[in-house]
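Morning F.,

Quick status update on the modeling queue. The single chain you submitted on Monday has been processed. Sequence for confirmation:
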Amino acid sequence: MGVMAHSILKPQKQNDLTANMFVRSDPPESCTVDGVQVSTGCTLGKATIRISGSHNRVAGEFRAAGRTCTITVKTQVLNALLGDLRKATDKLVLEMAERVLSRPDDELFEVASFP
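C-alpha cells below.
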C-alpha cells in the first residue's frame, strides 16, 4: 500500500505524505499499519499516520500535495487471507507472504485517486 501511495502521489519530502489507515485494532489486520509505516515513513510519533477503526475492510487513505488516493485490500483477498491465517503455522505464514508478494497489485488492491 505504501509503495503504491508513493508512486501515485509522488511526495516531494517524506513528511509531505500522510496516511489514515482503516483497520481493525488487532492482528492480523492491524499489522497493515506496520507495513505502511515502514514503506512510507509515516509514523505515529510524527503524527503523519492515523488509525481509524474498521471492521469490514483494510484500507489506507493517503494524502500529499493536495492529492488523495485510497487503496483498499480487495474483499475476496482479505477474506481468503484471514481464513488461512486463522489456522496458519509460522511456516505457512511465510509461504502465504511469498504468494501474496508474487501477485500483481491490481489483483490485491482497489485504488481510487483524487486530484
